[in-house]
Each structure stands twice: as C-alpha cells, then as structure tokens.
Design a protein that fits this description.
By secondary structure, the protein is of the alpha/beta class. It is built from eight helices and 15 strands. A six-stranded mixed sheet has the order 1-6-5-4-2-3, with helices on both faces. A four-stranded antiparallel sheet has the order 10-9-14-15, with no helix packed on it. Helix 4 packs across helix 7 and helix 5 packs parallel to helix 6. It is globular and about 65 Å long.
C-alpha cells in the first residue's frame, strides 16, 4: 500500500498481478470441489516411483556442466583397475547435502561415492574412499589417507564444494573461495594422482585453481539421484550439454561491494555488464563431441522499431559422438547519450540434438521488446543505430569454448 500511495505502482498493475495469481490457483483446482480436482486423486504409490527416480537422475546429468576436459573424460572402464573417490561432499554423513533446501523427503539419496561404485562394481574395479577434510574445518588430519588413496588409484575423483550451512537464502558468503582447507586438499591430491577429476557440489560461483585437475564437473546440488546422474556423465553414458547460468569469477576482487548495485560500474555486475576476464563465462559448457556454426542470416538487415527480426544459421556435429547442443543468441544494443547498456544480453536459446555428422538449421525471432533499451525512468525505447547479434554455443569472447560463434547485425 505504501508503494501505491507513493505512486510507485498503480491499481492496474496490482490487478494484473492478482489476475496471474488467481489464474494459477484456478489451474491448480483450488476453487473446485475436492473430488473434481485431479491433483487430489494422485495416489501415494506414484511417489518415489522408478519413473520419478529416473527423471531425477536425468535431471542431474542434464544439468551437470563440463567445465574442463583434457581428454580424461569419459573414463574408460577397461583402462581402470582402481578409482579413488575423495572429498567432503563425496559421501556426506547427511546426504541431504544434495537436496540443499526447499525439498521434499527422499526415501534414499544416492551420494557420489555410491553412484560411482554402482557404475563400476560389475567391472571388478576397486573403489577407494577417503574424506580428506571437512567442508569448513581447517584440519588437515585426513590428508594422508586421501593422498595414499590417490597415489594408489588410476584416477582420483575429488568432490568438493559447499552446503546449505554455507550458502542459502538468508545466508550469504563473504568469499567465493572453497571453504576450509578444500583447496589445499585438491592441491595435495593433484601432486600425487595420475589423473584428477574435480567435481563441484554447490549452488553459486566458486573460485578454483583449474590447473589442479584434468577435468572439472559442476554438478550443483544434484538431488536424490545425484551420484547416479553424475556417474552417467563421468563414464560416458550421457554426453554433457549443460551451460552455466551464472558467471564464475577469477577472484573476489572482480565482484562489486554488495552495497553498490551500480550495474555498469567497473568491472560491472552480472554477465550483461561484466567487462573483466572471468574464470568461466555465463553460458559456458563443454561436450564430449564438437559443434560448428555457419551461415548466419539476419532479416531484415534494415529494420523498423516495430519489426520482428529473424536470426538463423546452421549447426553441425563434427565430433565423434551424438550429443545435445545449446544454441545461444545474444544481442548488443547501441549506446545513446552515455546511457549504460548491457554489453550482451541473452535473448534466446534452444537445446537441439545432433547425431554424429548431422547438420541442422536453427532460427530465432527477436521481438522489439528484446532489443529495446530501458531508460533511467523505466521507459523502454528503441534507439537508431547498429544492433549486434551472436549465434553460437557460448558468448562471443569466451576463449575456452571449443565451438565457434557467428556474428551478425541489423540497423534501426
């Protein structure tokens, strides 16, 4: 009511919000008779069903981001006799670590140690486990056991990260560094391991030394099938395709103070304004195969402010495996009277599946709203000038991306 009294919003805006709320409640059947609401007739037998657990497993594998791969992944079972699984998030005493918060209760949460063991037990591979350290403790008393396991194994899977005790709604972090002595544990394992695969279990950006691992996987808080879903990626049952929904920074100094929300003030906030060199770009993610983009077309090249602009091109799978690709469309708008505008803005993405050697066309439509600029007073305008678009599997400046990015433009 204070906002209404201060003319920050009007009654029409409130009505629009209320319509959306009540429409959702109507769709949920909240105003129907109990017996007429189909959601009230769902039997408890479907809870935790095999179909639901398979969906949970697929959700984990499809959201896991491959951040680095020096050729070690996917692991070939025929070439491994011993695997080490190390780290505080590999086999936590409380497996709800993988559920984080705002979750239901699962009958069984598959942790990463269990998932890796499930994937290799029939192949006669020995799995060694060592916790190494706690999430936040500064104790290194478990390092020797972890180092011994890594020295003995053909590959060491090191599982680090955070928990809801460190990051959640209402609990912010003062640093993006790995908590406790986790970075030191990774360094110690790297020095003795034949191959190191780093797995991150977390919900926000982390600062890591990527030189300490041959491969890096961001698996987030993977849910009740976290271990099995991750194992599907590690051993090649699933080809990774996910992309980062946020920026991974190289240092804490790349972040503006939390009290300063000036988006474009150097080095800039979020991928839209950040002008520095991050550790990993928003939209970044690798695959076990490789894709190539060609023949971008922008129609019309000379547009009116009311035009829908079409951006299209071709993507080919030129690698050796079938896989999904996330085609991304970014837009950069012209500046006007020194008004701060985003460097890039994601205005479309499509997930497409391509078999090895396949080539397909992908297209996007840009409505005027998507290439408009927001003035300081909140008004959306479309200024004359040249608008740049990019079409590819990552941002244009991302040097770690293995796929090319095409660039086009249109003029208003």
């Amino acid at each position: 009511m204070k906002a209404l009294a201060s003319n920050l919003i009007d009654e029409n805006q409130i009505d629009d919000m209320l319509r959306r709320i009540f429409l959702t409640r109507m769709r949920l059947g909240e105003f129907d008779l109990f017996e007429n609401n189909p959601y009230n007739n769902i039997p408890s037998s479907v809870l935790d069903s095999p179909q639901h657990r398979e969906l949970a497993r697929e959700s984990t594998s499809s959201s896991t981001v491959l951040l680095k791969n020096s050729g070690v992944l996917p692991l070939q079972l025929s070439q491994i006799k011993k695997l080490a699984v190390i780290g505080p998030n590999a086999h936590p005493s409380d497996p709800s670590v993988y559920l984080h918060s705002y979750n239901g209760q699962s009958s069984h949460v598959v942790d990463i140690l269990e998932g890796v063991t499930n994937a290799v037990y029939s192949n006669g591979i020995t799995v060694l486990y060592a916790q190494g350290c706690d999430i936040q403790s500064n104790s290194t008393s478990g390092f020797n056991e972890a180092i011994a396991a890594a020295r003995e194994a053909d590959v060491s899977i090191v599982v680090l990260g955070t928990t809801s005790d460190i990051e959640r709604e209402g609990k912010d972090r003062s640093s993006l560094e790995l908590p406790g002595v986790q970075s030191q544990l990774l360094s110690a394992i790297h020095q003795v391991a034949k191959e190191t695969v780093l797995v991150l279990v977390n919900g926000a950006s982390l600062i890591i030394d990527e030189t300490l691992a041959s491969a890096i996987l961001e698996t987030w808080y993977g849910g009740e099938e976290a271990g099995n879903g991750l194992a599907d990626i590690i051993f090649g049952k699933v080809n990774p395709s996910a992309r980062l929904p946020l920026t991974f920074y190289s240092s804490n100094t790349q972040l503006r103070p939390i009290e300063d929300y000036n988006m474009d003030k150097t080095p800039g906030r979020t991928y839209r304004y950040f002008a520095g060199q991050p550790l990993y770009y928003f939209g970044f993610g690798l695959s076990y195969t490789q894709f190539r983009y060609e023949n971008i077309t922008v129609i019309p090249e000379n547009a009116k402010p009311t035009d829908v602009v079409s951006v299209s091109g071709y993507v080919s799978n030129i690698g050796q495996l079938d896989g999904h690709e996330i085609v991304q469309l970014y837009v950069s708008v012209p500046t006007h009277n020194d008004l701060a505008v985003p460097r890039w803005s994601l205005q479309g993405f499509k997930k497409v599946f391509l078999r090895k050697g396949e080539k397909i066309a992908v297209s996007f439509s840009l409505a005027p709203y998507q290439y408009s600029t927001v003035k300081l007073d909140g008004e959306r305008v479309i200024y004359p000038g040249t608008y740049t678009v990019t079409f590819g599997g990552s941002q244009l400046d991302d040097s770690k991306a293995t796929n090319n990015v095409l660039k086009g433009s249109f003029t208003i």
